[in-house]
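Morning F.,

Quick status update on the modeling queue. The single chain you submitted on Monday has been processed. Sequence for confirmation:
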Amino acid sequence: LTCACARSPAGLPGESPLVRVLEDESRSRLGRFNQKDVSMVFSSEANNKALEAIFSSQLFYENRQERFIRSMAEWLPRKAENLTPYTMALIAKYVARHRLREPRLLDTIANFLLKRGEQLDSKVIQKLVFPFSRMNYRPSNHGELFPKLEAILEQKAGSSPLATVNILMSMFQLSHFPQTVLHQVFSPGFITNVMSSPYALIVRRYLSLLDAAVELEFREYSGPRLDPRYRVLMFEHALTADEANRKYSYKGLVAEALRQLVGEECYRQDEVLPPGYCTDFLLWINRSGTVLPLSRVPAASRAPPATSPVTMSLRSSVLALASDLQDFAPVVLSVNDKWHYCQNSDILVGSRAMRDRHLRLLGYCLVQLPYTELEKVSGIEEA
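Structure tokens below.
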């Protein structure tokens, strides 16, 4: 398998005849790949480049749930103590990128973090924590790990604000809310520090979504909150992954089916709803089950405009929607494509799962259209 990645360390072009020969040879050997091969990859830190090349290769992408991952899942727990944080972070990066919900790998990363967390800086911790939220997976040691992460963040929150809010976001996606750390990140000192930094906008985006999550899911919290003047939308448009994979999405099929079924005047596509969630399709239905043209929906009943998230608190939005549900029900039609799920799984990735929780708490009815159902559809009439 390493041979297939020769283009990366050796700098060979992907279309090189040599690379094609190596890739063909590697494919023929996949069935015989075993733990000895994994051990060779990890035999020295110099092989980090080879490891990165493997995870980045098209060959690995095509076979990412094959024997390499199974062998690594069996080998890694026994060897993790001998790996450097850099190597473990590299593994975590590609486990997350390929959405590999392999419990043995994830638990090994969690155990490494539990044992070595105090020696690591926030940026490395951020990389090691991310796979858990990405895969919507609470590691088996979360009862010990999460309190330890809280204690570390309390000490290091100010040294790396962006890493801190990223770690918090991962924990929020797993429905864990560290109260003492929230006191810090919403404090005037932390906010002032952030506003003068070059990454002010991205941290404001994260803090805005964290603040919304506190409003919706952590109602017992009584500490400081984000000043409304600093609130912005977390996302202003579709996620990068959705844009990049648009040609593979079933959203176009669903859009055409909706257009023929209810008419363009009865739904909105790619609507961004506060606190910054892009929805595939938004419809309004009355008590008798009829899809209403948007012109017949009272303006006051519609979702607050995404362009002005600071004009209305989420709590008042919830109350407004709750009263409107007596006559109208806002419906979000969600097209869940393959990359919205963990690899070979029906479990949504953490960010998507949190989005769905929040939309429901805001009063929207969610209708899920998983790709596994849509791929069975034959023609527009069935759609």
